[in-house]
Amino acid sequence: MGPEAAGGAAALWLWNPMVATISTRGSSEGLLGVLTVALLWAVEGRRVGLAGVLLGLAVHFKIYPFIYAPAIVWWMDDENMGRVTAAGTKPPSSLAQSLVRFCSPDRIRLAAVSLATFTGLNLLMYSIYGSPFLVHTYLHHITRIDHRHNFSPYNVLLYLTSAVPSSSSSLHTESLAFIPQLLLSFVLIPLALAKRDLATSMMAQTFAFVTFNKVCTSQYFLWYMIFLPLYLPGSSLLRKPTLGISVLLLWVVSQAAWLQQAYQLEFLGHSTFFPGLWLSSLGFFLVNCWILGIIISDGVGRLETKSTSRAHIE
């Protein structure tokens, strides 16, 4: 990608009105974007120690970047770390040999440094703030019931749950939301995409994490928007303008439909929970699932293209 194309792609973040609006209201998502992009830069630059520090710092800053760990570890094979010789690498002959080779010094170093950074920062914060630090930083997410400004399909369910005393409730359905969310963002997408296109994998992981989260607000959109300058230049959304325009319009229109229902609820006092708010939440969710499928398809396509190109070279 040339300098002009790179500058145009960067403008997707720098000149994005949503980024500016959310940043000016006191949100720290811009700083988190710096950390995640710096993490990607350090990993692809094979700066393992720095990558470990950035990963530990990012997860301490806000929990969700932990989903990048399996993608990074999976990406750090001999080929991507530049350890493949001209003669190639002999394939392992047993499962034990595969495990030993997988636990490379670089992967062990990344795990050790990131864990030490994360643990050290948490111990420091706990020594300053005590148990409220644990409650507001981690435990809050387990019991969180946030039905305001929430695009998630779990929105109405969370509202109904909030009316039930916690002492008389057992396991709620929304508590199981993390299963498809982590299965996609933490396991399946890294396995499918990370080997050849780490940036697209991180984009897809973040998109899946936000889409399937039981709480989804506008500021979360910035978590994946930071990867747009890296993903879009080679994506099918630009190669096929009709597809790209359709994606943008449906994403905006489905979001606007939800906001219209939420405005009637919160500002006008009309009860729009069902069917209006619930159906608009489902519509926005389905649009995001469709977009996620496009991102994953683009990543798989890039992987196949690189594999084909490598085969022709050899």
How would you describe what is shown here?
There is one protein chain. This protein is mostly helical. It has one domain. 71% of the residues lie in helices and 0% in strands. It contains 16 helices and no strands. It has helices spanning 3-14, 17-24, 29-44, 48-61, 68-75, 95-102, 105-129, 131-143, 155-162, 178-193, 198-211, 221-225, 228-231, 236-239, 241-266, 273-313. Helix 5 runs antiparallel to helix 11. It is globular.
Keywords:
GPI mannosyltransferase 1, disordered C terminus, mainly alpha, globular, 0% strand, single chain, endoplasmic reticulum, 314 residues, EC 2.4.1.-
Biggest sheet: strands, sense, closure?
Answer: none
Q: Count the E strands.
A: 0
Q: What's the helical proportion of residues?
A: over 70%
- One letter per element, helices H and strands E, the order comes to HHHHHHHHHHHHHHHH
The gyration radius over C-alpha positions equals: 21 Å
Number of domains: 1
User: Structural class given helices, strands, pairing?
Assistant: mainly alpha
Low-confidence stretches: 307-314
